Amino acid sequence: MPIPDPNGLSQTHELPAGDSDNLTEDSGLNFGQLSEYLHFSPKDGRIWLDGQRMVLMHNSSLGSLRRELIERLGIERARGLLTRSGYSSGVRDAQLVRERWPDADPEAIFFAGTQLHSLEGVVQVETIHFEFDPHQGTYDGEFLWHHSSEDDEHIAAYGIGTEPACWMQLGYAMGYVTTLLGRLTVFREVECRSMGHATCRVIGRTIELWGDVEEDLRYLNAEDFVSQNNAGLSSGNLPAAAPLPVPGTDLPVLGDRQLIGISSAFIAACHMLKRVASTRATVLFTGESGVGKELFARMLHEIGSRKDEPFIAINCAAIPDTLIESELFGVDRGAFTGATTSRPGRFERAHGGTLFLDEIGTLSPSSQGKLLRVLQEGVLERVGGTSLISVDVRVVAATNVELRDAVTKGEFREDLFFRLNVFPILLPPLRERRDDIPLLLSHFLEHYNLQHGRSIRGFTLKAMRALLNYRFPGNIRELQNLVERGVIAAEDHSLIDLSHLFRDEETTRALLFTISSEGELSPESEESALEQFRRFAPANAAGPSLDKLEARLVSEAVAQADGNLSAAARLLGLTRSRLAYRMKKINESNQESG
């Protein structure tokens, strides 16, 4: 049934089976249109789908890989790996459709995913039922999957079983719809050929329509400590293992145990975190400001052997040089004017547990020397004290500067650097883990809806396109602030639009893209499109010369590709035969005019 809106008027776009082909054809998103972006360049050994390199390989080879993953890792971990791989593929196809057809109807954009899945040889999709409400931000669809490539190989290896086996395909569907909608959307395979059914039946819904999706989400997470947090996306309730809530609310503290992501860069960092957590090794987190270094440090403590002991954090950049030593090592009574009592420092307070030193590159040379002594000998002296105090502390440090460069410049002690750099973990910026943006948006939206008592439904397609193109100089911290701003600025029961997110005119302009002469997306220039065209206009002409513009574009593309017509055709979004035809016309026109 259609989903009613709060005002009693149905806003739902509902399409029964059979209408999807007409919808995509009317919008230009049919198989023919989509296949124009698939280019084969056998001489180069490359296949392209709109600038994304593809690989054509035997399905049986994928089946062999699937079998080895299952045999070596077990069915649960293998399923997780394949689900996440499919999710990543769905995200990239959603970006392709959104960038190439930014003005297409939302329904056509969603259905384009089913056609791309078929075009890529994965499965034939038949739509049974589909509802998408752009005002409520909800999605509810039912589909049949015919000729599943995964089922072919799974049945050949294991025969008919009791569980569905289209793991990559489920991940793809979740990644595609979640990226377009800006709300976490979960697909479940309720019938499968690997279970003995004639075909596969799949249902996809946004999480509020499903209810409990913890079982579904655990296959999106690389490690158990991540799944504890992503499970919180299924509701506004506190995750079971989360620490202290915000006073007066049921919300987990932002910054505590909320590692969320599925990108390869994020998963690699999580694997490294798990490997070092059970040891006593010093860990150095590096990365830009706002990437979540303290979150990772807290999680390192939570999953390690010291989880029942204190976790003490200090931002070295926030404490004046004159006070940093007393904060770290403590003060004895009478050490200076006003020191009327003895006070333990952060090292003593963290005894038996973990001490997190953020922005460690800002420590003064004197403090660096005393820190090195504590790390080497496990003893310290309070400021003004004379006795040695033994401490058992695991030190975890973080910096957003390159400490090797600081060592070269004489700004950081080389011996301290090597003492800290036992197990470095580089945390990637958000622009390198864009697959995680839809999940993070869904998480922050849920959080701030509860915190501010709002009922924001999601994000418009325009806002999603901008957020996935934005470079996020402030990384996750900036994304979090943008979502909170959007929740406050948007009206209840509506969607967050671009105007609710960005207020700075220059920032907003940078999110508008056009196609450059190289055939790539680039920021829109100050010069209008007509003014750009007029540069190619013949003398005394009232308008631009499209023939001259075409000749210039073809010439520049061929020159940039060093005469390789296949590569030049890809730059222009053409097939090689179409480019050759245009070059022939241009040459004939030049001969006639000459």
UniProtKB/TrEMBL annotation:
The keyword ATP-binding is assigned to this record: yes
Keyword Transcription regulation: yes
Annotated SMART domains: AAA, V4R
Positions in coiled-coil regions: none
Domain Sigma-54 factor interaction: 259-488
GO biological process, one term: regulation of DNA-templated transcription
Region of interest (Disordered), ranges: 1-21
Keyword annotations: ATP-binding, DNA-binding, Nucleotide-binding, Transcription, Transcription regulation
Protein name as it appears in the record: Regulatory protein, Fis family
Organism annotation: Amphritea atlantica
One MF annotation (Gene Ontology) recorded for this entry: sequence-specific DNA binding
InterPro entries cross-referenced by the UniProt entry: AAA+_ATPase (IPR003593), AAA_lid_NorR (IPR058031), Homeodomain-like_sf (IPR009057), HTH_Fis (IPR002197), NO_sig/Golgi_transp_ligand-bd (IPR024096), P-loop_NTPase (IPR027417), Sigma_54_int (IPR002078), Sigma_54_int_dom_ATP-bd_1 (IPR025662)
Superkingdom, natural source: Bacteria
